[in-house]
Design a protein that fits this description.
alpha/beta; single chain
């Protein structure tokens, strides 16, 4: 990792480097995705199955695209009972956390006879995308489905790429069943996003699509927004650690690498006021890389998007963190809760030396589907609220409207909307 003395000039350059990972930086891929979306929209299943064979090297048909109960039963036989127990315990914790996010409808009354309120109702359907291919992520299955279930979504559709054998990874299927998916389809990539956004003969259209994926999935979600809702446009994983001289370099290095191993585009940044800690972390990283299984991916990630920023003061360090707006932020300082109160932009905040980022990935309870690439300035973690919609409710008695009608008429006429004004005026005409 590169050690850099933090100042305005070099920080601007570092930010630009990190932002190169944005979905706005892939015009060629964007054109490919647009073509896939249009093709699936026009040809439905025929296009979907063609792309599945082309990209996933799996032959899928109308008869086999939907995962069957027999395949789910087979998956349960293949999964280690110990892992199944872990998945179930994780679901209990994750569901318990998300239960606290539930929202209720509410109403208020005014003395003149007006009733105002908000009706909260769940989406009718949700589409969950879960990556496949080289890696299997049952944790992402759980994190997508649980908030939708807690919200009360009636139909949850999951799409995930099949293997070359035309099957879905057993742990993915078991996690989907345990979390409560209603339908699981063997479809991945931009073509799966298109199928859920527009519907095909086999895959029903949904109201919202959530979940992480590669650049093609991210660009597809971005493109279908408006036809359906989405959670956010996720980019590669990232972590920022805010630390002072009290931090344990052995822990900090391990935590940085926990995200760098995701892929070559992942970002790992340490912001610290301690030059000694910076040097110690570099040495610790070299030690870890001698035995970690994804060492080559980690090296490429750190070479491109790994930085150690040494700040003169903790206020400067916190300012840098807020500018980065990281997906995951760990605070390992003498008084981490004090600094947490100063953090404005972060997807998830891990406080103290024993709140390692993987705790949030798997077991703590909060959702691990988080905003990336600086979008924590305006996006949040996936929550139950993402699967709810709100309708305003307005009731007025004649007396309540009478007290307001002259102001409403004047307001409407000021905007030259005479039909608006007339709609209120006619209710007080004298016969």
């Amino acid at each position: 990792m590169k050690i850099v003395r933090l100042n305005k000039e070099n920080f601007g350059s570092i930010q630009q480097t990190l932002l190169k990972r944005s979905t706005n930086s892939y015009p060629a891929e964007e054109a490919q995705v647009a073509a896939i979306l249009q093709d699936v929209r026009e040809r439905g299943d025929e296009a979907l199955f063609s792309y599945t064979e082309r990209f996933d090297h799996a032959a899928v048909t109308k008869e086999t695209v939907l995962v069957t109960p027999e395949e789910v039963a087979e998956a349960y036989e293949a999964v280690d009972p110990k892992l199944l127990g872990i998945i179930r315990r994780a679901i209990v914790r994750i569901r318990a956390f998300h239960e606290h996010e539930k929202e209720e409808s509410w109403f208020m009354t005014e003395p003149e006879g007006m009733v105002l309120g908000q009706r909260v109702t769940p989406l009718a359907s949700a589409g969950v995308y879960v990556p496949g291919g080289k890696a299997v992520y049952p944790s992402s299955v759980i994190m997508n489905i649980i908030p939708a279930k807690v919200a009360g979504v009636r139909r949850i559709v999951m799409c995930t790429p099949p293997g070359r054998d035309g099957k879905v990874a057993p742990t993915t299927l078991v996690a989907a069943k345990e979390a409560g998916a209603d339908l699981v389809y063997k479809a991945g990539g931009a073509q799966a996003i298109a199928a859920m956004a527009f519907g095909t003969e086999s895959i029903p259209k949904v109201d919202k699509i959530t979940g992480p994926g590669n650049i093609y999935v991210a660009l597809a979600k971005k493109a279908v927004y408006g036809h359906v809702s989405i959670d956010s446009v996720a980019g590669p994983s990232e972590i920022t650690v805010l630390a002072d001289e009290t931090a344990n370099a052995h822990y900090v290095a391990a935590d940085l690498l926990s995200q760098a191993e995701h892929d070559e585009m992942a970002s790992a940044v340490l912001v610290t006021t301690s030059a000694k800690l910076a040097e110690d972390v570099v040495n610790e990283i070299e030690g870890y890389l001698k035995f970690l299984s994804r060492a080559e991916i980690i090296r490429r990630s750190l070479d491109r998007f790994g930085f150690i920023l040494v700040a003169d003061t903790m206020d400067e360090a916190v300012e840098a963190v807020n500018e980065i707006a990281p997906e995951h932020l760990e605070i390992e300082t003498a008084d981490p809760f004090l600094l947490m109160a100063k953090v404005k932009n972060a997807g998830a905040i891990f406080v103290g030396p024993y709140s390692s980022e993987p705790l949030g990935d798997y077991f703590a309870g909060p959702n691990h589907i988080l905003p990336t690439n600086g979008t924590a300035r305006f996006f949040s973690a996936l929550t139950v609220s993402d699967f709810l919609k709100k309708s305003s409710v307005i009731y007025s008695s004649r007396e309540a409207l009478d007290a307001l009608h002259e102001d409403i008429i004047a307001f409407a006429e000021a905007e030259q909307l005479t039909a608006h004004a007339n709609s209120v005026r006619v209710r007080f005409e004298k016969n």
